[in-house]
Amino acid sequence: MKNRLIGIALAVALLVAGGIVGAVVDRNWVRSKPAAEQPSGKRVKGQGKRHKRMLKRFRKRLGLSDDQVSAVSKILTESRGKMRQARKQARQDIRKLLNPEQVQKYDKMLERRRQRRRARRGRRGPRGPRGP
Question: Residue ranges per domain, the chain?
Fold first, then answer.
């Protein structure tokens, strides 16, 4: 029982630490750059503002050709799907460790986080927290 609690605490701590690191990186690195433009001018399914900014930064700093930008875009899109699936799997694995009461608390915790993220999105405006 003690090992199980330690495992749960470790899993939750890793989840929280990942969220904090992600928020810091997003706020200080990703959002500090201007919005990107696609070389073709067309919006590709699955590409958000962050994805576009990253492509623009890669193109500028690395001197990528249009073909290289397309290849990097594909890699980023695929990795985003893999990360989403990994997070989903982690949540399922954590649920397996929890008793029914803990599962309810865990679900409420995740829902509160979703609500906070939605609320932050609405406050930022078009250019993120730093504004134009």
Answer: 2-105
- Give the distance from CA 59 to its chain's centroid: 22
pTM, rounded to two decimals: 0.45
Tens of pLDDT, residues 14-26:
777 787 877 777 7
What does each C-alpha distance from 58 to 53, 73, 126 come to in angstroms? 9, 10, 22
Which one, of 131, 132, 128, lies nearest residue 26 by Cα?
128
Contacts of 4 (CB under 8 A, 6+ apart): 97
| Residue whose C-alpha is closest to residue 59's, from 46, 45, 76 | 76
Chain centroid, CA 67 distance in Å:
26
